[in-house]
């Protein structure tokens, strides 16, 4: 009870100080307070969601050389309309983090065909012949990562954890270093993976893996409301949810938009994404 009273006093003091500060220096309109303070004890401000009717408009700010986190598992839950829109913007030199590399004529495979991706950080890449050709000929950098490790690296990035230890990969090229990331034209290794730090815990060896964060996350969801809260559809949640948290800006392609008053009670999978794109044939996108 004492703790609750202390929180209430702190809350009251917080809003009182905000109100005084706003009147004295910034003279903001009163309705902007709710936009500035998204959560009483949040460490960052909450930005309002933006809705787009054109997917190209939603991704046009992605610059050359950006790191993008692309959701999906195989072809389940991939943001295909956002990926197609990157073809139109012509952005180059991308580092793409995704469990898969798409297939030859769908998903990230389309960006590989136009050579817009410089480096792939992936787990499973076995269904894309163009991916294989570019990698072996030295045109593409590839950082292969065990699937569970990839998922945890992304989750850690979203949680603000810079690195963690895992037993996966100990005693392999992942731990020892030297795994080819990029080949030269003659087949020699141009870029090799780095050796991992090793620690022993309770008699078992672990290697250190660094977290993954991105400039933009391209996500596929099922429903979104006007506040940017989203729900994923069953197994299509996969890598999409942790990627939302690990990127500076999240762009979400959604299937259904619902009114702001729509109740997501107990079902929200992610809160207040920044951008939402709504497509004509009932495909929508959130940023």
TrEMBL record:
Keywords: Transferase. The keyword Transferase applies. InterPro entries: 3-oxoacid_CoA-transf_A (IPR012792), CoA_trans_fam_I (IPR004165), CoA_transf_BS (IPR004163), NagB/RpiA_transferase-like (IPR037171). GO terms for molecular function: transferase activity. It comes from the Eukaryota. This is Succinyl-CoA:3-ketoacid coenzyme A transferase 1, mitochondrial. It comes from Ameca splendens.
